[in-house]
Amino acid sequence: MLFTTEKNKEIVLRFNREVIEQGNAGAFYELVSPDVINHAAPENTPNGPESMHHFILQVLRVGFPDIKVEILDQVAEGDKVTTRKVFHATHTGEFMGIPPSNKRVTIQVIDIIRLHQGMYAEHWGISNIPDVIRKISEK
């Protein structure tokens, strides 16, 4: 199958809808290579899909189960897709040790995904999660 830039954008959109919004673990493993390299992972985090799976499905979605993804911009060139997006969510579960605050948050994210044969092969990303942690920690 030929993976065009448009097809690659569709794959990234599917990941955002099915994995981040819906928490679909099956879709995660369909879309993420077993050899994925996550350049945005904390230092000393092993490569491979498990750390990404854990953060998205067992940390992010637990803390913010109503998460919705708004895609603001998406640009593709070659085998890479860059997405600027916002997560809208309510902090109703524990997130990184912080008990639920019931506060609404917006998490701003810019991701670059390199795809290989229709799967996430590499990920780079930045977000405002430190700001979100401050907000949900405030009394």
UniProtKB/TrEMBL annotation:
Gene Ontology process terms (BP): polyketide metabolic process
InterPro entries in the record: Cyclase_SnoaL-like, NTF2-like_dom_sf
Record protein name field: Ester cyclase
